[in-house]
Amino acid sequence: MRIQSWGLLFTVAFWGAMGATPAPAAENFPISLTTVAMTEVPSLGHADRYLPQEDVVHVVLRLGERRVYVYRGDEVQASYPVAIGTSATPTPTGTFEVFQMIENPVWQNPWTGQVTAPGPNSALGVRWIGFNNLPNGIIGFHGTPTVNSIGKAASNGCVRMFNHDVVALFEQIEMGTTVTVVH
């Protein structure tokens, strides 16, 4: 048997599954399978149009407020107080992406070379989130034991956070998350 149209192929497949002849319900069906197959159906377009859109998580650091905000789409999900860079070593402004996420980071003093074990009393606290790679080092969010610096311009460009806040931030973002730093 030579099959010439999709409708005939469908009919053969349908009848083949049911036996040699159409099922009784198919005999009473007012539209033939060939007619259905030949009907012009408009395109639905891209599937993305019908799939639910998940709002993207992004971070905004407002230097003037000394606060970092986590957004999902246009909605603020959380905000945390921070310490930012001093006027001599400011936190850079612009749009960046998270490229490092480290639990319990080890800190090496850039001036003495001394290595400090990870933990809540390390200069980097319990989490590190790198978002800007500069010639003189990496800028990121991190915990700190120097909690009295939170809310001030006190760092060498990094963004200090309470350890419990940097853990919460760490859990809400991922590699590639956009970080926007504004005045």
In short:
By secondary structure, the chain is an alpha/beta fold.
Give the N-terminus to C-terminus distance in angstroms.
Answer: 75 Å
How many runs of DSSP E, i.e. beta strands?
13
Number of continuous helical runs? 4
Structural class by SSE content: alpha/beta
Which ranges are low-confidence, i.e. pLDDT below 50, for 5 or more consecutive residues? 1-18
User: How do the strands of the widest beta sheet line up side by side?
Assistant: 3-2-1-13-5
How can the largest sheet be summarized?
Answer: 5 strands, mixed
Helical content band:
10-25%
**Can you write the helix and strand succession as a string?**
HHHEEEEEEEEEEEEHE
Beta fraction: 25-35%
Report on the architecture of this protein.
The chain has 183 residues and is of the alpha/beta class. The chain has helices spanning 6-18, 24-27, 33-38, 163-172, and strands at residues 57-62, 67-72, 75-81, 84-85, 94-97, 100-103, 107-108, 115-116, 127-134, 137-143, 153-155, 159-161, 178-182. It is built from four helices and 13 strands. Strands 3-2-1-13-5 form a five-stranded mixed β-sheet, covered by helices on one side. Strands 6-9-10-12 form a four-stranded mixed β-sheet. A hairpin with a 4-residue loop joins β1 and β2 (67-72). The N and C termini lie far apart (75 Å). The relative contact order is 0.18. Mean pLDDT is 85; it is low at 1-18.
